[in-house]
Amino acid sequence: MNLLPRLTVIGTGYLGATHAICMAVMGYEVIGVDVDPVKIEKLASGEVPFFEPGLPELLTKALETGRLRFTTSFAEAAEFGDVHFICVGTPQQKGSHAADLTYVEASVTSLAQHLTRRALVVGKSTVPVGTAARLARLIRSQAPAGDQVELAWNPEFLREGFAVDDTMRPDRMVFGVTSAWSEQMLRAAFEPVLAQGVPVKVTDLATAELVKVAANSFLATKISYINAMAEICEATGADVHDLAEALAYDERIGGKFLRPGLGFGGGCLPKDIRAFAHRAEELGVGQAVGFLREIDGINTRRRARTVDLVVELCGGDVAGKRIAALGAAFKPNSDDIRDAPALDVAATLARMGASVVVYDPAAMDNARRQHPELGYGENAIDAARDADVVVLLTEWTEFREIDPDAMAAVAAGRRIVDGRHALDPAQWRGAGWEYRALGRP
Ligand code: UDX
To answer: Ligand 1 pocket test: which of 164, 165, 223 has the largest number of ligand atoms within 8 Å of its C-beta?
Structure first.
């Protein structure tokens, strides 16, 4: 056998594009496939269609090696690849908490029809447990090569903003397989990654699918836990910031994902916990993860409470007031606005009659497209011009570094809501600002 298997990556969004580029840089011949010709055109010409630190440079490097190509043709991909990675999205279904598997099913079917020789299809998308077994049957029935095509599951844990590092040096790999051959192919497909000593857990398909949703549920639970404590702090005058720091010294608890504030958003955590709860109900074990509904509820309340704080600082009514919203992306170092708490808060304030001016270092185009009704500033200071209240919604480093005096010089009032506990209250209060944060006196 050729030393390195040839790879295809189906779906070139945040996950797939990163995977395709990184694998090519690590020495593999890779074809990236997508049904969107515009995306494929951009990638082929060296442009990453989204914000991800470090990725544009790696795309240039990968294209220069000649090992990375892009296509919209499933026939070409099937002909080329030994291992095919499925990296398409599984968004939340409209009107339901279930995951929408349309893209997974369509891409697997489109590929399988052209598979005429031995190959491994590897699912990376986040799916409800049981999907992989169903897809394996689908592939066997659709592929001309029949049983020669196997399916494995390899969940992806990459975080936006750290996608390159998480792909090149993941903290663990999970291989859900049904044969020794599948495991061997996966090991060959990740040889340079595994050579660094990255631990691998080899398991069955269902467990591999579950690892992903279990991990994201745990992370969401941790965030909502500390935000629930923030609600208690608000009722008692205690300080959730100090509470979180004190808890973090206990190694069994740990400080990561224990940052209180506006809560979680993005294309993964919110929809993954909903889809997990939905799937558990289908399986008759809904009670086991019933707490995830509470986790979701706590998280949603953070957005409402942030709006309340702004209303309070406006003297009880935001109608006609000018609000500067710092941040639109669901987290810093990303231009992703899927289920972004920041934009949710900004749009709610606008619906209540406020004139909202948003600034985000990376997500302006995406935000404008989704929320044309909001105003947009050139930078943080520009957004704060004449603002009655400033509200920090995404903790970009450049917002942490804002000089309170410089902002005071343009704002109408010195009132700030720190939705992410990103600023130093003493510094802002010292500069004459009324500083408020959820769960802090
Ligand atoms: C997440 C998982 O971390 C990743 O492993 C999985 O593969 C995909 O989903 P991502 O969505 O990129 O990654 O973002 P993450 O860094 O996990 O942050 C999720 C949300 O939680 C963000 O909105 C962030 O602002 C929020 N968050 C995070 C908090 O509110 N508090 C914290 O302490 C940590």
So the answer is: 223
Going by alpha carbons, the residue nearest to atom 19 of ligand 1 is: 264
Quick: pLDDT tens for 232-288: 999 999 999 999 999 999 999 999 999 999 999 999 999 999 999 999 999 999 999
Which among 417, 323, 329, 420 is positioned nearest to 374, based on CA atoms?
323
CA 99 to ligand 1 centroid distance, Å = 19
Tens-digit pLDDT profile for residues 181-239: 999 999 999 999 999 999 999 999 999 999 999 999 999 999 999 999 999 999 999 99
269 ligand 1 Cβ < 6 A: yes
Q: Which helix (H) or strand (E) holds 25?
A: helix 14-25
pTM: 0.96
Does one domain contain both 187 and 242?
no
Report the chain's terminal Cα–Cα distance, integer Å.
66
Q: Is the CB of 14 under 6 A from ligand 1?
A: no
288 and 414, same domain (yes or no): yes
Which of residues 168, 203, 238 is at a domain's end? 203
Closest CA to 48 of 73, 68, 29, 28: 68
Three-state secondary-structure class, residue 338: coil
How many domains does the chain contain in total? 2
- Looking at the fold, whether 89 and 186 belong to one and the same domain comes out as yes
Give the chain's mean pLDDT: 97
CATH of the domain at 18: 3.40.50.720
- Among candidates 122, 37, 129, which has minimal Cα distance to 82? 122
Active site positions, annotated:
268
Using CA atoms, how far residue 84 sits from 120, 293, 306, 427, in Å, is: 6, 35, 44, 53
Q: What is the pLDDT of residue 3?
A: 78
If pLDDT is split at 50, 70 and 90, which confidence band does 1 have? very low
Q: Are residues 46 and 136 in the same domain?
A: yes
Cβ of residue 264 lying under 6 Å from some atom of ligand 1: yes
Whether 210 maps to a domain, the answer reads no
Strand partners, 412: none
Closest atom of ligand 1 to CA, residue 394? 25
pLDDT band of residue 2 (cuts 50, 70, 90) is low
| Domain enclosing residue 105, as ranges | 7-203
What average pLDDT does the segment 381-404 reach?
98
Answer yes or no: is 145 within a domain: yes
* Domain contains 25: yes
Residues 167 and 235 in one domain: no
For residues 181 and 254, membership in a common domain is answered with: no
If asked whether residues 278 and 168 sit together in one domain, one would say no
Q: Which pLDDT tens digit goes with each residue over 33-51?
A: 999 999 999 999 999 999 9
Where a domain ends, among 203, 238, 268? 203
